[in-house]
Amino acid sequence: MADKEPKRKTDTGRAMREARALVYEHRKSLVVGLLLMLVSRLAGLVLPASTKYLIDDVIGRHRQDLLLPLALSAGLATLVQAVASYANSQVVSVAAQRAIMKMRGRVQEHVLRLPVRYFDSTRSGVVVARVMNDAEGIRNLVGTGLIQLIGGLLTATIALGVLFWINWRLTLATLVFLAAFGGAMAAAFQRLRPLFKQRSEITADITGRLAESVGGVRLLKVYVAEARESRVFAEGAQRLFENVAGTITGTSAITAFSTAIVGAIGVLIMLIGGHAILAGRMTLGELIMYTFFVGLLAVPVVQIANIGTQVSEAFAGLDRIREVLDMPTEDQEDLARAPVARLEGGVAFEDVWFEYEAGTPVLRGVSFEAPPGATVALVGSSGSGKSTILGLIMAFNRPQKGAVRIDGVDLQTLQLRDYRGQLGVVMQDNFLFDGTIAENIGFARPSATRAEIEAVGRIAHVEEFARGFEKGYDTVVGERGVKLSGGQRQRVAIARAILADPRVLLLDEATSSLDSESEALIRDGLRRLRTGRTTFVIAHRLSTIESADQILVIEKGEIVERGTHARLLAQGGRYRQLHDRQHALEVDQFINPGEDFTTPPSPR
User: Fold this and answer.
1) Are residues 76 and 109 in the same domain?
2) Measuring CA to CA, which residue among 576, 572, 535, 585 is closest to residue 378?
3) What would the pLDDT profile of 298-316 be if each residue is shown by its tens digit?
4) FRET partner for 174 with CA separation of 20 to 30 A, picked from 15, 146, 157, 452?
5) What domain count does the chain have?
6) Is there a contact between 387 and 509 (Cβ–Cβ < 8 Å)?
7) Do 422 and 502 form a contact (C-beta atoms < 8 A)?
8) pTM, rounded to two decimals
């Protein structure tokens, strides 16, 4: 179920540097937050400090004149603490969300510029989780988490100073317990951080599988596979549960240990403080004040434990984000490549070998030349390597041996953004965004006018079905174009390719979802589109490629025949076999339209 990614050793030093850089980037908001936190924490010390004077002076010495000033001071300090705390939360929380927004944008931009091979080996749900979930934890670095951590340390430091002032012997004994607690926390965080990182990975796996299930829900229902898919999801959920349970155990142990430490300190105060009062070394007010300040010392320490867990989670997210950002993008690779002017469109393969898996060649020494403006058709059995050739032309992959040349220049030396901007593609399973028909056509050229969009829509015969919708070209097609038929989606894709005005056109089963009547109509549009452009065609129906300048017959990754339609038929080889078998099938379907004939495998 899981996408297995290479395990990388956690680089604590680098994570700390990245955290510092992140904090520095948002330093203005954090400085304001720290100042507000300082005001809030100092104001919070007034009430516990006033208890000594209330007990020893107001009550013990009957200083009634001090009662009202003490009460007003405590009330005012509490009000200042509340206002400062509210303002602090607003400032740092907004800063945290802004940081999350920027990080998500940075990761998303980087991910979209990664080579296609990354997406071939990574589930879409995993990619989404990387963008959305991993950035969420940084709120603990630039938000309330870090502020509370610093505030807790500040409060603990001030409280510790006051405790030494009141009774240094009792405070030394207290520190022994707190030191033990600090060591236990450090060890616990070291063990918890890998668990939080693993949780992000498991969550990404489950998200990926869930996205696949939702996207393929029709297939699940057809094969009555809902229960099977639920079991697979339940297994992933179990893994997540076990991970969360492990982290809960760790954090609960820290909390329990902190409770025990606080209890032990309380016992110390009772014993040592009681003896000090009886011996006259402490007043009752000082003991009460000491107890309050022990609370101010212990509570931040416990908070530090919880916040430390959150910060560990943030570091785990940074680890995973760094793994993505360390991957070289195509843009980075383009820096060392030559810019591309307007292409003539000549394409040549020179002894190209390619394999997806080491030791299993998909293409074996493929060589051919397509002059500018020529139409080259690729035919052959399923899995013979035809779509792989198109993938190499689109620079989605690189040959292990040989070269793909564009206008005589090795494709690997050209800037991909410039090059791909002059490609047009129509695939068998065309992707449409959840927008309108017009928006999907205009995706190829955002600057296109509505008139231009509708003009190419007429060429691709989109207008014929668009008129049938109440909103015409403004009809929303749904996710992946689910509200359109397969043929309608392909017409939109063809219109999109026409609008792109490409120099090299790639048609991979571009008319496979069209009926014969629609195909006949659209064939004229494709012929107009092919004019003056180098075109590569993979076609299910061999009749659609009769006009090709060159037909390449590919079997097991090798070109076994090449030539024009008439020449290949005359040779009586593999192409003739494919042609005759398909022709016989079409005749049978015409004579016996009510019978169920199984279409032979697409010659891919």
Assistant:
1) yes
2) 535
3) 667 666 656 666 666 677 7
4) 146
5) 3
6) no
7) yes
8) 0.62
